[in-house]
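Hi all, long-time lurker, first post. I run a small reading group and we've been trying to get comfortable going from sequence to structure in the token notation. Rather than ask abstract questions, I figured I'd post a concrete chain and ask someone more experienced to write out its structure so we can walk through it together at our next meeting. Sequence below, copied exactly:
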Amino acid sequence: MKAGTQLGPRVIASVSGAAMHDMAAVLDDPNPIHLSGEAAAAAGLGDRPVNQGPVNIGYILDMLRAVGVVRDIRVRLLANVFAGDRVVAAGRVESVQADRDGRFLAHCVVWLEIDGSGRAVEGTAEIEL
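-- Answer (accepted) --
Happy to help. Here is the structure in token form:
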């Protein structure tokens, strides 16, 4: 692997509204915008449930784990992902360096793109190859 190598894509064809209910329980997140389109609409967010931020980051982590061991990730949330959205997790290797233990670490830029709407998440990650 070298600088410029493209990572992914990991495509989620349709973000599951039903999975949001499960994740709300796992995350102990009672916010109703994750459970109903009506609650999202009442909050001024549109008419579909909003996916949890940690799940959106998880899509990026899944994409990275296909390449190596994730050592660090730093991202920011830019936009909401809604039930039914198609999203694509991808990235690019910026550099590869050996650490003092002889392991190769890839420094990457990463993102989650909402099909037709721009980026929902972007940031950096370090993976051990």
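A couple of things your group might point at:
Residues 6-16+51-128 form a domain with the Thiol Ester Dehydrase; Chain A fold (CATH 3.10.129.10).
Strands lie at 6-12, 69-77, 87-98, 104-114, 118-128.
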